[in-house]
Amino acid sequence: MCHRCGERLKGYVCTVGDRDLTSEVPDEVLAKIISMLPTDDGIRTQTLSLRWSKPWQLATLNLDDRDLHPWRWGDDLVELITSILLSHPGPARRFSVTCLSRVSDAQGDRYPSIANWFQSPALDKIEELCFCYLLRTARDPLPPSALRFTNLRFASYGNCHLPEDLDEGISFPHLRKLTLQQLTNTESTLHALLSACPTIRSLFLVDNKAFRKVRISSPSLKTLGVSIEMWELVMEELIIVDAPIMIQIITFVFLPIENMTAISSITFLQAVKIFSISATGFQLSVVMDMLKCFPCLEKLYFTSMAKESGDQLNGDPSIECVLTHLKEIVLRNYRGRPEDVSFARFFISHAKELKSMEFRVPFPYDKQWEVDERRRLPKLKDRASKIARFKFVPGTFFKHFGDRHFTHDLSIYNPFEI
């Protein structure tokens, strides 16, 4: 008995398995499947049969050059992207180009081709855009047409120079997440972009060395991330003028403590519940100066980037969030040095609502080391919170370059749970 058609096998040849079962699937369903595939796999479906040509045309385009890069690169990749945008009628949901430099050794300036891509009708309704030159030379321009998409919900621009006249005509009414990485513009470009994003929720600024005096004013912004490399020029000021519903601030600032970016606010940020800061050592005074801005803070993530001991400065136990709200603290690169212990002891002794403190240690250790470290913490009778629990985690060294890119989605509840 044939298991496919139920007929007796003697003298019978079953042809059920030879049928193209996809012919029974509606084009719209196949198009939905194709739209969920990586770019290269979606394109390859056309080679299966003529049956797949129409579904590919109907599928929402998801074009990411990283999917194409393994089998096309350089000028060939440029030609392939051009071909896809010419052959696909749209709409596209996502367009990401991060594997190409502006200039080709063989064909010269790629800017005209890139500008033509952004003018393609297939991209008219894209919701996600990521564009970053692979290598940056002086002021590599971003085509103005890259700023024309009013349906964007996520946008990321990197290694480029945005047009200077942004006050004229740009609008991102639906944009929720914006990342700006290694731009050569000044902070005035950022201010203009924020003004064009009335519903923005998340802003990530990565190594924009010409952003010197940044002022954040956005009634809709909930999460702010700032990263500054230690070899970059310093962001002199970060002033939060008006952000009434901001709940999370993440900073990656790797500079000598005396040159560290100043974060301040015109009014106290009552809504901020989560604050992450990285600095050169467990410098308590720096953290306390910043905590004054966040009276209702509940979660503090602190990362030390120093391998050598530094001076331990005193903290102010009267800061409101320490006394009444702080519940969770994560200390990364905790090594058990005197200033590390003093930093932890301060919060254990004064944070009345503390529920947990996690010590992430950048090396493996034995059980006796952890026992000795626990003994250096305040005894139960000396703790401000009697219910606080302490957890030591080995081998969790904070790698700046890798970890900060895992936080591109700043909406993650704990940005360092990777």
TrEMBL record:
UniProt-listed InterPro entries: F-box-like_dom_sf, F-box_dom-containing, FBD, LRR_dom_sf, LRR_FXL15/At3g58940/PEG3-like
A Pfam short name: LRR_At5g56370
Name under which the protein is recorded: FBD domain-containing protein
Domain FBD: start-end pairs: 320-393
Organism: Eragrostis curvula (weeping love grass)
Membrane-spanning ranges: none
